[in-house]
Amino acid sequence: MDDPLSPFDPVRDDVVAGGRRLTIARPRSAEDLIDEEAYARDERLPYWAELWPSGLALADRLAAVPLAGRRVVELGCGVGVPSVVCALAGGDVLATDWYGEALDFTRANAAAAGARLDTMLVDWADPPPELLARPRADLVIGADLLYEARNGPALAALLPRILAPDGDALIADPRRPHADALIDPLVAAGWSHLMREVRHGGRVDESGPLVRLHRLRPPPGGVPGA
């Protein structure tokens, strides 16, 4: 069987995430994956191909969350570190991304870690019926999702459709300027929001060395019309 990762000349990084030592495969060069036609069509860029500090910070936060038997959905899973950590902790995990190639890497990283999870191709602005037909998630997670202005409103519309009324959403964000586009509409709709900052030891970009961990919960009784 052909290895779906081989065209990407993968490298493997040893990381500690969520208290677990993992070997994570990722493409050698995200920049080489930029597709000008895809960008012209829908401004698509291969952010999935990086091992972002926010993903590691989210995985560390998840180490303190009881996950056994809980339904978990990761949005924008990239190479899958938080999803793998959740699956190893006993979560019933669905890892989703806009790129099929990201799902290939997530499946490979899960298999290498001895974790079992499901994957699904998901466009936040046009979620597939298969996602919406699933039982609501107990926990929705995501790392560094708010890098573009369009992402916040799409996620704010999607979360009420996939999260259980008594569920939690944990979003790790390195202080991107578009985070309010996710948080403000949900808070206005009655959701609770808690935030704390953690310092990461990974590579530092224009956002600096801090990651914000956002916890969002639906209002009591859920969201009308969701």
What does this structure look like?
This protein has helices at 36-42, 53-62, 81-88, 100-113, 129-133, 151-162, 180-188; strands spanning 11-17, 20-26, 71-75, 92-97, 118-121, 137-143, 163-173, 192-199, 210-217. It is an alpha/beta fold and 226 residues long. It has one domain: Vaccinia Virus protein VP39 (Rossmann fold), CATH 3.40.50. The strands form two sheets. A seven-stranded mixed sheet has the order 5-4-3-6-7-9-8. The protein has a two-stranded antiparallel ribbon with strand order 1-2. Helix 6 packs across helix 7 (180-188). It starts with 10 loop residues before the first strand and ends in a 9-residue tail after the last strand. The model has no long low-confidence stretch (mean pLDDT 91).
**Overall tally of structural domains:** 1
Run of helices and strands: EEHHEHEHEHEHEHEE
- CATH architect. name: 3-Layer(aba) Sandwich
**CATH H-level homologous superfamily name:** Vaccinia Virus protein VP39
- How far do the termini sit from each other? 43 Å
Query: How many helix segments?
Result: 7
- Rg over CA atoms, rounded to whole Å, is 16 Å
Give the overall shape: globular
Spatial arrangement of strands, main beta sheet? 5-4-3-6-7-9-8
Helix content: 25-40%
Classify the secondary structure makeup into a structural class.
alpha/beta
Mean pLDDT, to the nearest integer, reads: 91
- And the CATH topology? Rossmann fold
